[in-house]
C-alpha cells in the first residue's frame, strides 16, 4: 500500500480489495477509519471515516481535505484501521510534497 500526500490538495485515500483471510471473501461491511499523524504521533487529521464504495469488491475511500495542515518535505504516517467482520491495521510512512507543475 503506497500513498502520495499533496500539500493544499484534496487527497483521495483508498483501501482496495479488503478480504477476509479465512473465507477469502471480500469484506463490504467493515468500519474503516483513516488517521494522519506526524513523527511525534500528534494527530494531523482524523479519524476520518472511509465508507465502502458501493458495488465494489471490498473497496473503501475517503478524502483527506486540502485544508489538512501538511507541510512539503515533512514525514507523516497514514494509519488505516479496520474493524467489523475483519480486523486489520496498516501504518504507511509518507512524505508530503507539492504537486508537480503541469506540462503545457
Provide the structure class: mainly beta
Q: What spatial form do the alpha-carbon principal axes imply? A: elongated
Q: Which parts are unreliable, with pLDDT below 50 for 5 consecutive residues or more?
A: none
Q: Which fold name is given in CATH as the topology? A: Immunoglobulin-like
Second-tier CATH architecture: Sandwich
Helix content: under 10%
Order of helices and strands: EEEEEE
User: How would you write the strand order of the largest sheet?
Assistant: 3-2-5-6
Mean pLDDT over the residues: 92
Query: Rg from C-alpha positions?
Result: 15 Å
Distance between the termini: 31 Å
**Strand percentage, roughly?**
35-45%
Say what oligomer this is.
Answer: single chain
| Level-1 CATH class name | Mainly Beta
* Overall tally of domains: 1
Query: What profile does the largest beta sheet have?
Result: 4 strands, antiparallel
Amino acid at each position: 500500500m503506497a500513498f502520495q500526500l499533496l500539500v493544499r490538495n484534496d487527497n483521495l485515500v483508498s483501501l482496495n480489495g479488503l478480504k477476509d483471510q479465512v473465507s477469502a471473501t471480500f469484506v463490504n461491511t467493515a468500519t474503516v477509519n483513516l488517521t494522519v499523524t506526524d513523527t511525534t504521533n500528534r494527530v494531523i487529521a482524523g479519524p476520518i471515516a472511509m465508507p465502502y464504495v458501493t458495488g465494489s469488491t471490498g473497496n473503501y475511500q475517503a478524502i483527506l481535505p486540502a485544508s489538512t495542515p501538511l507541510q512539503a518535505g515533512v514525514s507523516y504516517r497514514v494509519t488505516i484501521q479496520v474493524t467489523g467482520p475483519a480486523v486489520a491495521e496498516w501504518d504507511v510512512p509518507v512524505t508530503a510534497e507539492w504537486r508537480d507543475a503541469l506540462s503545457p
